[in-house]
Q: What sequence folds into this?
């Protein structure tokens, strides 16, 4: 950036501060310590401090912030809990971070309609705590205690998607502040609609590049009568995956079906103080009545018997279940603990389930041949798996090997009709892969939508598109 451009940028930011700082008070933040809190991310990408942080508390303030920034051409980066993995909310030095976590009210709970309305800063765990007395729950579980706004932004899913779907299936309506400051409403409380373009799902997965969500209407589900969770060791990854494929083809209604390879199990044992056999393993959860759970357990064990499955050990004890799923959700810190001075690069792809075994086996073989440390975990009931590369920051050869494995994962996934990311989103980490997946024509349409809604390019710039 030339000197004249730097001066222009500084003038724009100063003008913005003059408008917003008096209106927001201590929710306009410019100190190094305050801005440094917004560098952090669960991903491995290099991040930059934003120029300032704003913390709106209602939709009117979001409109005020967006309008003021748009008028001055100042970039905006919306963010929540910052648990994203592909640099989705990475800021830049001339941008303001719009921290939505203070907009954390639950607006409506309508048990009779199986829905609720919330502000974007509500976390999934906080929402489910409020729902305890209703007999309902919000099922989408990406592992981290992410905000609902962030989960909408990345079209999140997670361990329960195999039964309850992703954010795409569980978002009914949105209120969104557009880049020009307008507030629009998409969708309704009805379970379906054939009225016009589906704007709700245009913004679900847009990663904050088209507007800022200020409230969302979500589907809720009934708490099952019985929940049974447990582990299911296998002799091989292929045996575990073949069992998963057979279970899906039979239509068995599993609620969670997670794969951990032997490296991942060993990491979880060490980090979460478990004593699981260090062999490929499925973490399983069934929902239903006592009779249906017994029936589904019998059917699963029958499928696994011919694929090297050992005993399926299920428990209905809530404390044991929490310990088990806490260990699964701690796969990322468990991987970090394998190399205390290392960085973990987490990547994911999703493939048609018939190609899942080949995709994972191919990836595991490449990792081992490269001499890398990289646990594999996956939401294998819907064909999605993750690799957690444990890399020394200064070891360029290791990073090059990891990039090679990641590129092969993506290439193979696309070759069999899969996707470069099942749930992490594009952010800054998979922009090239998006182009490979959709091609120039489709990506150009996405860019036209972006240009139409955000002609100044102020909303989360540099994300999704190269």
A:
């Amino acid at each position: 950036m030339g000197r004249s451009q730097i001066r222009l940028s500084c003038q724009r930011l100063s003008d913005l501060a003059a408008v917003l700082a008096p209106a927001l008070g201590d929710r306009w933040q410019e100190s190094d310590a305050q801005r440094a809190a917004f560098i952090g991310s669960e991903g491995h990408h290099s991040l930059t401090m934003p120029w300032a942080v704003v913390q709106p508390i209602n939709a009117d303030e979001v409109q005020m912030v967006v309008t003021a920034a748009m008028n001055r051409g100042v970039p905006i980066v919306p963010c929540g809990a910052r648990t994203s993995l592909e640099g989705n909310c990475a800021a830049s030095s001339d941008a303001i971070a719009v921290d939505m976590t203070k907009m954390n009210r639950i607006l409506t709970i309508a048990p009779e309609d199986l829905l609720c309305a919330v502000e974007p800063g509500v976390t999934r765990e906080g929402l489910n705590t409020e729902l305890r007395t209703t007999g309902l729950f919000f099922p989408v579980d990406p592992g981290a205690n992410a905000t609902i706004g962030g989960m909408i932004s990345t079209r999140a899913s997670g361990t329960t998607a195999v039964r309850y779907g992703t954010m795409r299936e569980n978002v009914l309506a949105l209120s969104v502040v557009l880049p020009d400051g307008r507030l629009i409403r998409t969708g309704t409380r009805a379970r379906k609609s054939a009225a016009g373009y589906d704007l709700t799902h245009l913004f679900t997965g847009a990663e904050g590049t088209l507007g800022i969500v200020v409230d969302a209407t979500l589907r809720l589900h009934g708490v099952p009568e019985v929940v049974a969770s447990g582990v299911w060791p296998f002799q091989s990854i292929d045996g575990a995956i073949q069992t998963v494929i057979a279970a899906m083809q039979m239509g068995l209604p599993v609620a969670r079906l997670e794969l951990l390879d032997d490296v991942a199990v060993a990491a979880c044992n060490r980090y979460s103080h478990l004593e699981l056999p260090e062999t490929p393993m499925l973490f399983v959860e069934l929902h239903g009545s006592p009779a249906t759970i017994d029936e589904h357990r019998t059917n699963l064990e029958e499928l696994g018997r011919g694929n090297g499955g050992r005993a399926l050990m299920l428990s209905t004890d809530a404390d044991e279940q929490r310990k088990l799923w806490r260990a699964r959700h701690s796969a990322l810190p468990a991987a970090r603990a394998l190399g205390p001075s290392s960085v973990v690069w987490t990547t994911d792809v999703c493939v048609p389930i018939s190609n899942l075994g080949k995709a994972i086996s191919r990836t595991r073989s490449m990792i081992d041949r490269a001499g890398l440390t990289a646990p594999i975990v996956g939401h294998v009931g819907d064909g999605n798996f993750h690799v957690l590369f444990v890399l020394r920051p200064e070891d360029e050869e290791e990073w090059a090997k990891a990039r090679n494995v990641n590129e092969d994962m993506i290439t193979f996934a696309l070759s069999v009709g899969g996707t470069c990311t099942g749930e992490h989103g594009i952010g800054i980490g998979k922009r090239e892969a998006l182009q490979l997946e959709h091609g120039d024509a489709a990506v150009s349409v996405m860019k036209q939508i972006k240009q139409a809604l955000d002609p100044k390019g102020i909303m989360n710039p540099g994300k999704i598109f190269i």
Q: What stands out?
A: The mean pLDDT is 94.
